[in-house]
Automatic annotation (TrEMBL):
This is Glutathione-dependent peroxiredoxin. Thiol-specific peroxidase that catalyzes the reduction of hydrogen peroxide and organic hydroperoxides to water and alcohols, respectively. Plays a role in cell protection against oxidative stress by detoxifying peroxides. The keyword Translocase does not apply. Its EC number is 1.11.1.27. InterPro entries: PRX5-like, Redoxin, Thioredoxin-like_sf, Thioredoxin_domain. It comes from the Bacteria. Belongs to the peroxiredoxin family. Prx5 subfamily. CDD domains: PRX5_like. It catalyses: a hydroperoxide + 2 glutathione = an alcohol + glutathione disulfide + H2O. Keywords: Antioxidant, Oxidoreductase, Peroxidase, Redox-active center.
Length: 160
């Protein structure tokens, strides 16, 4: 069952891609005491993720922060090195924190996994966006397979 409004973000270990290299992060601590807009993508460097999803949050970073978002984070079921390379490719500096969930532990804990093993892609995250205040989900939007409407930054802005 997917995480929903009112639920607490699960506390698991993920990896943050930083300029200094991979950094282990506890999601319970990451979400504690602040408002986080987290969006999940099926994979770094994939067409919709690179051309639309990530850029929508970069372009709307100031507007999201003006509405009370402290941190914008992008999560994918890739390793931290891939997430770091994707950030560099996309020109990401400090607008978006890149979170790697390479083994899909966080994705599964939130009930947002999407099994693409039959297509050679393994377990991936569904495309989604959520807002959490002090670790509690206040908004969540999960896309239907192949869709890109409810999880873009503009939709999150409208929900804030």
């Amino acid at each position: 069952m997917p995480i929903s409004v009112g639920d607490t973000i699960p506390a698991v270990k993920v990896t943050q891609a930083t300029a200094e290299g991979p950094k282990e992060v506890d999601t319970g601590e990451f979400f504690k005491g602040r408002t986080v807009a987290l969006f999940g993508v099926p994979g770094a460097f994939t067409p919709t993720c690179s051309a639309k999803h990530l850029p929508s949050f970069v372009q709307n970073a100031d507007a999201l922060k003006a509405k009370g978002v402290d941190v914008i984070a992008c999560m994918a079921t890739n390793d931290a090195f891939v997430m770091g390379a994707w950030a560099k490719d996309q020109g990401i500096t400090d607008q978006v924190v890149m979170i790697a969930d390479g083994s899909a532990v966080f994705t599964k804990a939130m009930g947002l996994e999407f099994d693409l093993t039959a297509r050679g892609l393994g377990v991936r995250a569904q495309r989604f966006a959520l807002v959490a205040k002090d670790g509690k989900v206040t908004h969540i939007a999960i896309e239907a397979p192949g869709a890109f409407e409810v999880s873009k930054a503009e939709a999150v802005l409208a929900a804030l």
